[in-house]
Design goal:
Layout lengths: L2 H28 L4 H36 L4 H31 L9 H30 L2
Helix pairs in contact: 1-2, 1-4, 2-3, 3-4
Length: 146
């Protein structure tokens, strides 16, 4: 067994599934909550995901690069995974993180004007990065199992 490929699959699978699960199963439910409750839950999720995902998403890129350099399986698939993970991190830093910082400062009882539009923008890019992470994971799986 290749330990690097195993760790890469475990980490990228955890990160991709966590983010995609949040996008596909958690946030659609949150959209139906009243504003105060929704913002309160969003702020709680920011604390939980905000502790783990910066490290996890960075590790996805680093581990995929290591697998691609090592040449396990089909190298071009590993490099494609690197691109998917890196673009996901790029969207995260450029779009989602600034919105997360703003959301963390909101008073749930008195949210700023346009807060729903801001959250819709976050959700759109959450979808983009979630799909990219899932695609990256599938590519790493394909690269590591050849």
């Amino acid at each position: 067994m290749n330990l690097l490929v195993f760790v890469t699959l475990a980490v990228t699978g955890f990160v991709a599934c966590s983010e995609f699960g949040s996008y596909a199963f958690v946030h659609p439910v949150l959209r139906h909550l009243p504003g105060t409750e929704r913002i309160t839950v969003e702020k709680g999720l920011l604390k939980t995901f905000g502790r783990v995902m910066p490290v996890g998403m960075t590790l996805c890129v680093v581990l995929a690069v290591a697998v691609a350099i090592e040449g396990s399986g089909l190298g071009w698939l590993a490099w494609a995974a690197v691109v998917a993970f890196a673009v996901a991190v790029g969207f995260t830093v450029a779009v989602n993180v600034p919105i997360n910082i703003a959301t963390g400062r909101w008073d749930p009882a008195n949210p700023p004007a346009g807060w729903e539009r801001t959250r819709r923008r976050w959700e759109f890019f959450q979808g983009v990065r979630s799909w990219l992470l899932l695609i990256g994971f599938v590519l790493v799986c394909a690269a590591g199992t050849v």
